[in-house]
Amino acid sequence: MLCLIICLVLILFSFYYCIHDCFKPKNYPPGPMWVPLLGCFIKFARLRSKHGFIYLALQELAQTYGPVLGLKLGNQKVVVISSYDLVKKTLLQDEFNNRPDGFFFRVRSFGRRRGVLFTEGAVWSQCRRFTMRHMRTFGIGQSILKEQLTLEAENLIDHLQQMSERGAVKMHTAFDVPVLNSLWFMIAGHRFSYEDQKLQKILVVVHDAFRLMDTLGGVISQMPFLRYVIPELSGYNELMRILENLWSFVDEEIKIHEAELFNYQPRDLIDAFLLEISKNYENEDTTFNRENLLILCLDLFLAGSKTTTDTLATTFLFLSLNPKWLKTLQAELDSVVGRSRAPTEDDLPSLPITEAFLAEVQRYLILAPLGVPHRAAKDVFLNGYLIPKDTTVLFDFHSVHNDKAYWDQPDEFRPQRFLDEQGQFCRSNYSIPFGLGKRRCLGEQLARSSLFLFFTYVVHYFDIEISTEHGKPDLKGYDGFTLSPKPYYLKLARRLERGDDRHVTRAST
């Protein structure tokens, strides 16, 4: 009898939960119908399969339900915000500056909230201030960073020259090492060689990580119980393999610094953080602990390099498909820089076409269409709709950069939209590739400098064409946390320099 009563109670409770789980909060933004446990995940998954990309699936839903789209994916309430006006408005509101706090966002940091990418409040503000202060100390805004970027650009040209002499060059990963080195020099005080096998292995892991998980953390984030039921199919096993490799890579670097740290003279960001740990060792609530250092380095390693490398790789893929732009850019560089020296950042104001081209690249070839997810810090109304506390909020940056209210013929690649009547570069307020507000990308200055210098060096020193042996590149990349370029190969031919001197004038190392 007791068993029967327990069973009836469980059935009634399950029935109540299923009914309650289908109800949307009052004034919740419009969206597809919810079903128990899954929400509207099935419809979302079907649209993603149809389009091949998450942001396109969400845009089809936004066309039906409006620019403030309300979803429930598994156990996650998700609101997607589109159009320039709404995205700008919400990015600048403190209520939308928190980060999601689910299984995926904690498992990467040992079940806690660590680092700078997916934290908020005191932990985030202290980590961000510390990172910004010491990245300026060890490079950003200083001549040492310009020297480091120049060194990396010169080594990149030498590396591409060596690869081109062997045949077609694998371009989708060509910028991994120089971009990472420019960042790692400030974080860990050293750079990697192109032949470093340990680095090459971890770079493969990084690319796997960005393809495995999407902006929302994948199905394992929406239905974390699946890791117990189908750990392989849900991606949980692969996720843990990736994380263990990344943790190990960063942990080894920290151990080296711990063994060599002395005299209280920090050489890089890791040293500076370790010194803060030693000062706060008696404070149990301090942000400065070893776990937080590891995850901070991981955040900077992943977010600080992946988007720039993929932007460069995709830009040259686009150039190979549109060779007229290559000739235009080379002509401007030749007229301003000449053929006897390499480009420098000081040339940037005199290269309006190049600057406009890169600005249009970041608008047209947007590789992070949904950015990094946010979370509502409290119940907040937007356009008359209630966005409940703890709702995950996604911003459709692709819609921002294709908003017809602000962009004339946004489907066309037109760098001239960033030039004024005198042919000078004119930055647009409607282009926000690095975000807005308190969560604006903290590595923006480094990213802009790296993008300009590595791009102009390659354009200045090489002609490029598609490798017929490997076929025409596909501009549509892999879907994931960002849009990663698919493998492609180009033939690089060294351009003649003044006096037929084919050697890059190298700076002192």
TrEMBL record:
Residues given in the record as heme binding sites: C441
GO CC aspect terms: cytoplasm
Pfam family, one: p450
Cofactor(s), names only, from the UniProt record: heme
Highest taxon of source: Eukaryota
Key words of the record: Heme, Iron, Metal-binding, Monooxygenase, Oxidoreductase, Signal
GO biological process per UniProt: organic acid metabolic process; xenobiotic metabolic process
Signal peptide: 1-18
Family of the protein in this entry: Belongs to the cytochrome P450 family.
Designated name of the protein: Cytochrome P450
